Amino acid sequence: MASFPDLRPHRRSAKAERSAASKNRVRLLFAVSAALLLTASLAVTELATLRGAKAHDATAFLTRELGPPLDSAPLVREPARGVTVRIRPRGFAVKSPAGSVGLASHDVPSSSWTHFTHGVSRRTNFGRESVVVAGGKTEQFFTVEQHQGLRTWRWAIDSKLMPRVGGDGSVVLGDGAASFRILPVAVLDTSGTNITPHGARWQIARAGRAWQLQLRLDDAKLSLPYVIDPAVTTFRNGQGGNNGTGATATLTINKPVGVVQNDFLIAQVTIRGGTNIGAITAPAGWTFVRRDDYTNVNASAVYWKVATGAEPANYQWSWLGGAAKASGGIAAYYGVDNSAPIDAQNGQVNGTSTTNIGFPSINTATANTRLIAFAGSTSSPSTNVTPNAGMTELYEDASVSGVSTRNEAADEVRAATGATGTRTATTDQIGSSVGQLVALKLDVTNPTGSLTAPAGGATVRGSAVAVSSNSADGQSGVANAQFQRSPAGAGIWTNIGAPDTTSPYSVNWDTTAVADGLYDLRVVTTDNATNSFTSALVTNVRVDNTLPTNALTVSSSSPAGSVFQ
Fold first, then answer.
1. In this structure, are residues 427 and 384 in contact, taking their beta carbons and an 8 Å threshold?
2. Distance of CA 11 to CAs 8, 14, 20, 25, 369, Å?
3. Are 178 and 237 contacting, i.e. CB atoms less than 8 angstroms apart?
4. Are 273 and 232 in contact (CB under 8 A)?
5. Are 179 and 161 within 8 A, CB to CB?
6. Contact, 252 vs 314, CB < 8 A?
7. How far apart are alpha carbons 394 and 239 in whole angstroms?
8. Per residue of the chain (565 residues), what is the pLDDT tens digit?
9. How far apart are CA 115 and CA 141, in angstroms?
C-alpha cells in the first residue's frame, strides 16, 4: 500500500495541528482529485480505443454500430422473430428454426467482453474484436491496428449444416435448403468504406471432422486501422412476389438470395380467374409440374428449374385471359437429384367457406424426400397463413386491395417412403384455395472424379505445379474438389491448398514447401448433397527441387615450372 507520511498523526501544538490539518485537507483533496483524474483518464483512454479516430483506435462507423456502452447486457439476444444470437467466450452462434451456425476465431483467446447496446467488444493482440447483432445479420469485426503481412485468418464453423462457397463469394450453409449465409469477404476502412483487396475470398477447409472458414490476406498495402468483417445472415429459403392491383397479365418474382449454379428452384404462381385464365407461359428454362383451378376463382401452377451459372435477377410469368391479380413464390434448394427431381406430386381444391387449406396425400418412392406444401388462395390481402404443424414456412406473399391472391409455401423432411398423409394449413379468414403437395428426391449418388495431371511417375518442381481433376456430378452438382498428397505408400494425407469450388477443378501445388522425394496424389470430390468420392491414386510423383552440382577440374601435363601464357 502507498505511504503518505503527511497523513499520519504527529504530537504538535493545537495551532500547529490546526495549520497542519488545513494543509492536510488541501493535500488530501489534491491527492483524491489527482486519483480521480487518473481514473477518468484511463477510462477515457479505454473508451477512445472504441471511439477515437487515431491510428490505434477503433473506427467511427464501428462506434456507431456498437451503440452506447452499457454496464451489463445479455449475451443472448433475439434480433428477429425466430432468431437467437448467443455471444460466447470465443465468437458467437446464430440459431433459427432451420438450424444453427457458430463462428469462433482461432486468432483470439477467450477473455471478458465490454458491453454495448448492439453488441460487445474486447482487446486482442492485433487490435480489437467486436460482435454486432442487428436484425437478421450478426457481424464479427476484427479491427487490425498493426500490419500482419501475409496471414491466414481462421474461424471454426460450429454447425451440422454443410458449408459451400457460392459464385458470389459468400458461404451458404443449409441441409438442402439454404438457411444461413456468410457474406462475401469485406475489408473496411475507418469510415466503413469497402477496401477489400482484389481476389480476397473465403475458403472452406476441413479441420478434422469440422469445417474452417479461412481468409488469406496480405495487408502490406492497407492503411491502418482496417476491419475484417465476417457477417452471418439468416434468410428464408424462398422469395415471394405479387403484381399489386393486377393491372397486367404478368407476374415477376425475384430470384431467392444466395442461389448458385446447380441449385434447384421450384415456383408456384396463383392467378385470380381460375378457368378463365388461359395458358400460362413460364420463363425460359422452367419445367411445368401441375396446374389446379378452383372454378373461375383462382388458378395455381407449379414449375421447376436447375440454376445455371448465369441466372437473371428475376423471372416473369405471363398468361392469356387478360390482366388479373397474381402472386407466387420461388423456393431454392441444393442437394436435389436434378436429373429426376420430382418424386411425387398432387393437388386439390378447397371450398370457399373454410379457413383450412387442405393438401392431398402422395406416395413417395424414395426415402428422405423434401415435402413442400404450396398454398394458393383467394381472400382479403390481410389474410395470414399458418403452415401445418412440423412444417417450416418458406415464403408468404399476396396481391393488394379487395379480393386478392395469396401464396404460401412450407416444407419438411419426409424420412419414410409410401403415403405421406394429408397436410392442412390454416388461415385467419375464410376463402377459396388450392393445396399442392410436391416431394423432391434428394441426391444419394456419389460424384465421380480422377486426377488428370500430373501423371504417375512424373517429375515435378517449382512453386506452381498444376494438379487437376475431371470431377463431375450429374445429380446435385459438384460442391468442391479437394486435392491431397501423401509420401509414397504412407497413406498420410495432407490437403494441397483449399478445395476448388468451380470447374475446371485444379490447384497449384507449391512443391518447394515439401521435401524432395516420391508422393502419391488423389482428389476427394464432394457434391452438393454431401456425397463424396475418393479417386484412385496417382503414384510415385517425384518432387525434385534440388539443383545439380557442377565442379570444374583442371589438370596439366606440362613440365614442372612451366608457365601458361
1. yes
2. 10, 9, 11, 18, 95
3. yes
4. no
5. yes
6. yes
7. 8
8. 332 222 222 333 333 333 444 444 444 444 444 444 444 343 333 333 333 333 334 467 888 889 888 888 889 988 766 688 999 988 999 987 778 899 999 888 878 899 998 899 999 999 999 999 876 689 999 999 999 999 999 999 999 888 888 766 888 887 666 678 888 899 999 888 899 998 899 999 888 888 999 999 999 999 999 999 998 877 556 889 999 999 999 999 999 877 878 889 999 999 999 999 999 999 999 999 999 999 999 999 999 999 998 999 999 999 999 999 999 999 988 889 999 999 999 999 998 778 899 999 999 999 889 999 999 998 877 778 999 998 888 889 999 888 889 999 999 888 899 999 999 999 988 888 999 999 999 888 999 999 999 999 999 999 999 999 999 999 988 888 999 999 999 999 998 988 888 899 999 999 999 999 999 999 999 887 778 899 999 999 999 999 888 766 666 555 655 554 5
9. 15
Please, which residues have CB within 8 angstroms of residue 36's CB and are 6 or more apart in sequence? none
Residues with Cβ within 8 Å of residue 502, at least 6 apart in sequence: 167
